[in-house]
Amino acid sequence: MISIKKVTDLAHYMVSMVINAGDLAVDATAGNGHDTAFLAEKAGPSGHVYAFDIQEQSLKATADKLKEKALEQRVTLIHAGHEEIARHVVNPVKIVMYNLGYLPGGSRRVKTESKTTLNSFEQALTLLEPGGIITLVLYPGHPEGLLEKKELLRVCTKLPPSGYTVVHTVLANQGNEPPELIVVQKILFKSG
Description:
Elements: H1 7-16, E1 24-27, H2 34-43, E2 48-53, H3 56-68, E3 75-79, H4 85-88, E4 93-99, H5 114-127, E5 128-138, H6 143-157, E6 164-170, E7 180-186
Parallel strand pairs: 1-2, 1-4, 2-3, 4-5
Antiparallel strand pairs: 5-7, 6-7
Helix pairs in contact: 5-6
């Protein structure tokens, strides 16, 4: 039985249903390293995770969390924005996770922005292998977060249903504009 108290719990649950040992994954927003460590554990010793962040503070926190769990060999930490994914990741990936907004405990002035997030998301769609998923945790409680949500929903609702399944989840019983989750899965194409 799983306990879902936050949309990040739901994102982890969705990823755990898809990821297998040996898979490649991307944490597009490393933050404090929670998603990076989760992906590294799930991908196993034969898989690999690419974790991006523009803040050195985030990369250090992520490196510390990986070291604590003896997972550092499974991850490449990249000091770059998520809009640089295609420059650093060339092979198809099974998972791309985004936890948008700002770093908990960090400066609220440093946050993801809709323009770079949309650019990154388009690259992630190209890198995503059939059956793979992208999770986007949204924070519409601040102006840039609301703009990211609107822009991402605009793009996601236009994805062709023959190629993608898109789910948008809101924890409806939580007030104050709670975080939301978008999950995009690239459909497995059947041959013949």
